Amino acid sequence: MHLWEWFFDLDNRISRMDDGVCNRIPPSEWLAWQQMTGDIVYPWEYDILTAMDRAYCAAVNGEIAAGRALERKD
Asked: DSSP label at 23?
C-alpha cells in the first residue's frame, strides 16, 4: 500500500505532461523525493515504482491517442 502512496505523492508534485505526452518520472526526481521525505526506498521497491510508472504512462498515453483518433474522425 505504501508504494501507491509514494507513487501518487511524487506524481502530484511534478509536471509530467509535455507536448501532449505523459513522460515517465526520471530517476533524479525519485532520488530528490526520497531525500526530501526521508523515506528509504529499497531497490526492489524502486523497481516496482518504475514499473507502476511505465504502466501509468502507457495507459495515459493510450487514452490521449484514442482521444486524438476520435478528434480526427470528427
From this structure: P
